[in-house]
Specification:
Elements (H helix, E strand, L loop, with lengths): L3 H11 L3 H11 L1 H4 L13 E2 H8 L3 H13 L3 E6 L2 E6 L1 H14 L1
Antiparallel strand pairs: 1-3, 2-3
């Protein structure tokens, strides 16, 4: 189990990228920012990494690294549907992390 200090540091590192901040912002209201998907519901299942890469204007490996960092920090959850991985915000974890950050500052 990681300590609260490790969690805060991990989150702050994850948030230190304009692109990752954009991804989090877009995933807050996925229907407003992404087109419909063939597989998976934008809200229930999350947004396919391919659509996130497309909107961000980056390659699949680049977006995968951003999504990995956000997931490892506990800000996103990933779900596999067929051959795709869908990402959505982990709102409960984000609330916990906000509280941990506020406790530190």
């Amino acid at each position: 189990m990681t300590s609260s200090t490790d969690d805060v540091e991990s989150v702050l590192r994850a948030l230190a990228s304009d692109r990752r901040l954009l991804i989090l912002e877009w995933l807050k209201r996925p229907k407003a920012h992404f087109r419909a998907q063939v597989d998976g519901d934008l809200v229930k299942d999350g947004v396919c990494g391919v659509l996130i890469a497309e909107k961000l204007g980056v390659t699949q490996p680049t977006v995968s690294e951003h999504l990995k960092i956000l997931s490892q920090a506990g800000l996103l959850s990933a779900k596999r549907v067929k051959q795709w991985t869908f990402y959505k915000r982990d709102e409960a974890r984000i609330a916990q992390l906000k509280a941990a950050i506020l406790a530190k500052i």
